[in-house]
Amino acid sequence: LHHRFIEKTAASRQWFERAQKVIPGGVTANIKYFDPYPLVMASGSGARLIDTDGNRYIDYNLCYGALMLGHGHPVIQKAVNEQWDQMGTTVTGTPHYLEVEMAEKLVSLYPGMDQVRFTNSGLEATMFALRLATAWRGRNTIAKCSGHYHGGYDQVLVSVQQGEVDENGFPAVTADSKGLSAYWRENTVVLPFNDWERTEALLIRNHERLGAVILEPVQSGFLPPERDYLLRLREFTTLYGIPLIFDEVKTGFRLGLSGAQGRYGVIPDLTALGKVLGGGFPVGAVGGRQEIMEICSPTEKGDILTLGRSGHGEDVLFHSGTYNGHPSVMAAGMATIRVLEEPGVYERVEQEAFFLRQGMEEILDRHGVPGYTMGDGTIFNLVMPTDKGYRSTNLLQGDKTLRQRLDFALLEEGIYLKPMSRFSLSTAHTHEVVKETLTLFEEGVKKIK
Ligand code: PMP
To answer: Does domain 74-340 have CATH number 3.40.640.10?
Structure first.
């Protein structure tokens, strides 16, 4: 399986061996590891990455979807340089104009946002959103969907893997990490995404103890919601006064400028953003209804003329972060949004994604390899079913061995994708790049026939 991969990537292997001695597993995030070792990249530009052996790849990972403008876009470089020139420093440690402008921009784009706070990652954003929601509602139990990922902390590392169900067909409540307190399993209701009947049964049984319902509107960025599922969830949570949180860390600025809420027309109480928003720098944001957001305000009811509270204590919801709203990040993010606001940008990238998906399916078909794509907009995944024609929303039920063989064949041909993961496109994935991808893809498919 890995024969040619190993031949081509000696430098990556050497770096990985060095890394492993000082970094557990040789990776700074578990998700970045794959067997036999992850590629160690040296540089990137536009749609491309070059590894430490000098192999060139068309990048479809794009830092897990964060790089909507591709690698090293000149407008981002210029914006960060300008921020440095204007402020003379990377960070002031005080409020500054860029974070105000960014907050205004988000409020204008996202229908579910009256106010916004910034964080340094998507993880922090969903964590803060959950704290706001549960505090506002005054209940600690949360409901999340089976298989939905919201970041690597205890409260949401319950039932991250999709699959297991109990004897009644409800998702099993699993601990998906060592070191997870039983508290979180006991205080998490796990919902089956897109299965309204079972979801409603669970909500009816548990609504009194629920402080929040959180979900990825598009699971893992590529399993779209039944619009009806989102609508009914919205109706139910409104009826019982439970804050509904959309984790739009992946879908924000991917499914258009207003994310999934804009695309599907369902408005949450709170929204978590990350990834694309930072223009390639670490970022997160939480926005939502004023009535909920302002419980973290250190001023009384948002009134700046009172002396205010300390920001600590029982009467205020604590939120802090040394680097929240970092000027370089805000500058990079605003530059990204300005490019994305140009007419036709999303349409073009989505057209290329569609063209690529169609082309891949045609090639698979032509060579008699079972497989189809799933997704919405600029992110999709490739499912290789065990049974031809069998369509499932559960990737785990697919033929993992075949998919892995294909992914390594693609790496050898020069398509970078973390094996078994999604494809994301950027504005740098032009028609030429996508056509080149299809040629390489066909070579890869021929190899696994
Ligand atoms: N929520 C979703 C939907 C995500 O995709 C991710 C990251 N993959 C996160 C939260 C966590 O974001 P971060 O990695 O920036 O902490």
So the answer is: yes
